[in-house]
Amino acid sequence: MSCFCPAPLASLTSSLGSLPSLSGLVPGMSMSLVAQINAGLGLNPALGLAASAQANAQAAAVANLSAMASASAAMQAALGMNLATAVSASAQASAQAGMAAAINGYNANSGALTPHLDLLARLLAELSGLVNLSGILLAIKAAFGIDMRAGGAIAALQARLAASASASATASASAHASAVASLMAALGLKADAQGALTASAQAQALARMTAGLPAIGSFHPLALLQAVLAMLASVRAGLGVHLTAPTAMADLRASLSGLPLSALAQLSASASASASASASASASASAAANAAAALDLSGVASANLSAVGQVSALMNVMAQGGIGLPAGSCGMPCPLALVRSGPALTSASASGAASAFAR
User: Fold this and answer.
1) Domain span holding position 272
2) From which domain of life does this come (predicted)?
3) pTM to 2 decimal places
């Protein structure tokens, strides 16, 4: 059983505080370029809106499937189990106990984040440019297979963007039609009748697990920390730079020097004229967005997963930040160490232990 431990949290915030200013390192990138790249991936916002209007009944199911996929990944990272493995009553009880322990640990130690709120807000603002660039590089690679560090990358990208404009309507419809299937695949399920039944059972199980959990006392600091950690991970994925490493700035400048930043910015500025070229054609392809409508996902849609987002955020922070440690292992006073050798921690007993520590 892991606790939201103040020892690694202090180390993490110290590392974040040592980051130099990251403002102005990259030119601004227009959302028009992002829209064109998304069209190459088959992600067309206009089609998404049209499909949502036609399939409004499935909106809750899609939202809950997305929450389930995020929760399952967070559970795997923080607790070593996902929704597919937490099927038995004992497994669900174990997962709920782990979540309760994490929440009570966070509630007992969340005050340690208060002095760092300004730092986290500053990092969110300063990292945005690098995160946008990282996202664009990853999207270009995924959509067109182009490495922007390679020779002739800008010319190749221009050609692919032009070619994608006329074909994106069909691709968009196909991609939107497979949204449910993609989310179910993230849960290890097939988009068929049996998969829908299993998804409904998992949704109801997750609702039961989260319904009995203690409340997260102060979510704002946790949300800021999660966002910063997600942005650091994005920069590492897109630019190959670990920003908390001692050589971060040298590594970052070396990574940026190999990219055609000015040309990308100019391409971004000129993208708006052609970004809408496929929008008018997308409506005619919207019928294909109903491919998954035959699945009965009423059990998924009806599940109350309102608490899942915050719990997933906490587990992600513990996993990404290395904050989750076995109760009592850090050598500091711990509200969970009192029960580390006893039976599985219940929500009520964990809450009492955390309150005793807080006093």
Assistant:
1) 2-358
2) Bacteria
3) 0.75
